[in-house]
Amino acid sequence: MRVSTALAAETRQVEGFDAAACLNCGVCTALCPLGYEILPRRLFRLVLLGLEERLAEHVPQIYSCLLCRMCEANCPAGVHIAENIRALRTIVGRRRLS
Amino acid sequence: MPLPTATVLGILGDNLARRGSVLPLSKRTATRWAEGLDLPKGGDTVIYTGHLYQLIPAIDLMAGLLARFEESWVTRLFGLGRFVNRFISLTFFIQLLVPRRKRAEYNAMLHAIARLLKDGGVSFGYLYEDDLYSGTLAYDEGLDEAFAPHARRVAEAFRRHGVRRVITVDPHTTHMLQEVYPRFVPGFKLEVVSYLDVLAEAGGGLRARRDGQVVIHDSCVYARYVGVIESPRTLLRRAGVPFAEPELTGAATHCCGGPVEVLFPGEAHRIALERVAQLTKVGRRITTMCPICLVNLRKAAGDEAEILDISQVLAGANDGR
């Protein structure tokens, strides 16, 4: 498994990207209308750790997020989940992972 | 094979950068809804459509075509399609395929919104050909490189016409102007208000009509992004339209699936079916406040429920239809 420091660094530069505040409690996953286990907390772990190849495997999930904020409205850590996912789309697009 | 995300998004981004919209509309198509309203051009306060209502018939048609290709070999040709689309707008041809009555229905919703505002005593203008696409789909898909210059063009159009207050007609555009544009356009400081809030505050203008209960479907963006929850209820009450709430409502509303309609039509339909099942437990006459919710729930409901934009419900109350 290869770690991309560039991915982690690029993510840190995104204004307001606060996935590091995620407690990994699972409320978001439980409430997600799509029911994808990867959304959003595991995705955040992959990007924060710079696991670019693993992230690339989950590009469809990144783009299928509804951005409905059902998770965000109930996140105990107040993470801006929808905006973080949207920012991931920008990063994925720029790095041509899709 | 699934739809090639990068290529589909590439086409949308190319269109925005080269043609000013993810799905280019002719100026006449974009502004036809305002015919007969005699709205002054520009002014301190304007109604801003952001083109979402006008684009829905074409987005719906495109999503239908993409859904057919979702698992077919045709997706392999999308790369070639993107290349050709840079020089000849293939997506413009989609607009030509849109049935006239569909376009007319969405235009009638915008017309109804403007009429409601006028009847409520609200003064406003319209930018006509300078009422540009808001860029919402591009932004949501993370196409920031295409979106940022576009946002500056939209902001410049407002500035050129001396606009200080914008009345928006859909939740996505409201969110874009309230929260996104100030981040992308330095100095962007317009007052941005949803027409539902404007009408609720204006008072008057609605006449009672008692023709059956509606079930409210809140838009995720209105409810959880910009906090427009009470105004539609206030307006329905004032119009004498009884309403019911599904279990998941207001700030806890359930998505219609529409936001992923273009890239994942199958998933969008699955979510919409789920939402229709929740709504029809309460009633079979449903009202939405976002054109994306409207089109997606309608497709999922088929003949099982009547789904109306809230402008149709309120304007119907006004016209006694």
Task: Describe this protein with a few key phrases.
heterodimer, A: 98 residues, mainly alpha, 7 helices, 53% helix, globular, B: 321 residues, alpha/beta, Rossmann fold, 2 domains, 4-stranded parallel beta sheet, 54% helix, 8% strand
In short:
The complex is a heterodimer of chains A (98) and B (321). Helices cover 53% and strands 0% of the residues of chain A. Chain A has 98 residues and is mainly alpha-helical.
Q: Determine the mean pLDDT of chain A.
A: 90
CA(first)-CA(last) distance of chain A: 19 Å
The most extensive interface, with participating residues per chain, is: A-B, 26 and 27 residues
Strand content of chain A: under 5%
Shape of chain A: globular
For the biggest sheet of chain A, the summary is:
none
Give the low-confidence spans of chain B. Answer: none
Distance between the termini of chain B: 48 Å
Largest sheet of chain B: 4 strands, parallel
Q: How many distinct folded domains of chain A?
A: 1
Strand and helix layout:
The complex is a heterodimer of chains A (98) and B (321).
Chain A: H1 5-13, H2 27-31, H3 41-48, H4 52-57, H5 59-64, H6 70-73, H7 81-94
Chain B: H1 5-19, H2 27-31, E1 45-48, H3 52-69, H4 78-87, H5 90-97, H6 100-119, E2 125-126, H7 136-140, H8 144-160, E3 165-168, H9 171-184, E4 191-194, H10 195-202, E5 214-216, H11 220-226, H12 230-239, E6 243-244, H13 265-280, E7 285-288, H14 291-301, E8 306-309, H15 310-319
Parallel strand pairs in B: 1-2, 1-3, 3-4, 5-6, 5-7, 7-8
Structure description:
Chain A is an all-alpha fold and 98 residues long. Chain A has one domain. Chain A is 53% helix and 0% strand. Chain A has helices at 5-13, 27-31, 41-48, 52-57, 59-64, 70-73, 81-94. The model of chain A has no long low-confidence stretch (mean pLDDT 90). In chain B, the strands form 2 sheets. Chain B has a 4-stranded parallel sheet with strand order 2-1-3-4. In chain B, strands 6-5-7-8 form a 4-stranded parallel sheet, sandwiched between helices. Chain B has helices at 5-19, 27-31, 52-69, 78-87, 90-97, 100-119, 136-140, 144-160, 171-184, 195-202, 220-226, 230-239, 265-280, 291-301, 310-319; strands spanning 45-48, 125-126, 165-168, 191-194, 214-216, 243-244, 285-288, 306-309. Chain B has 2 domains: 27-69 and 98-199, no CATH class; 206-319, Rossmann fold, CATH 3.40.50. Chain B is 54% helix and 8% strand. In chain B, helix 14 (291-301) links the parallel strand 7 and strand 8 (306-309). Chain B has 15 helices and 8 strands. Chain B has 321 residues and is of the alpha/beta class. The interface between A and B is medium-sized, with 26 and 27 residues.
